[in-house]
Amino acid sequence: MSQSLKLIPPSLSSKEKDIVESVNEKRKLPTAQELVGHYEAQGLDTKEASAKVIEDLQNALFRVVTSNRKKKDLEAKFMAETSRKLDVIYSRLVHLDMKLDSKPGYGGALAIGVASAGFGSIFPSHVAPAFANIWNAVRSATGPRS
To answer: Which of 41, 33, 35 is nearest to 20 (CA)?
Structure first.
């Protein structure tokens, strides 16, 4: 008996607890006649007992439906939040991927290095004196005539 009381939620009335206890003991759901008989044993006539059984069953059904609805609302909220988080993670990965793709690989870096080394060796010996000659020619042509 004490084990079956642990399975009964504290929010149930004493009448509902009696029904739950009988269900736990029998391991089967009571029939409508058994429920009506239960309320008749408490002093209600058949019509009142039937109305009370219908009311209790409607309340139980309402509790089951609303508890399922709350679970579905929580699941929908969880799924929406998870979806939003996955979208943020995906956008960050795409951004990181674009950054990695925009940089040259090993072959490109090697080609850039070779080209810059060639430009650095040619510029001081051949290009710099040519620019100096052009500069001097322009300066002498545009300078003051005496």
So the answer is: 35
CA triplet 26, 29, 34: central angle to 5 degrees? 90
Domain boundaries, the chain: 32-100
Contact criterion met (CB below 8 Å) for 22 and 39: no
Q: What was the pLDDT predicted at 8?
A: 54
Q: Map tokens 């979806």 to a residue.
A: 83
Runs of H (alpha helix) within the chain: 2-6, 14-26, 32-41, 46-102, 106-122, 128-142
Q: For 48-59, what is each residue's pLDDT tens digit?
A: 888 888 888 888
Phi, psi of 99 (to 5 degrees): -65, -40
* Phi, psi values for residue 37, rounded to 5°: -60, -35
Total residue count of the chain as it appears in this document: 146
**What residues have CB less than 8 Å from 5, skipping those under 6 apart?**
21
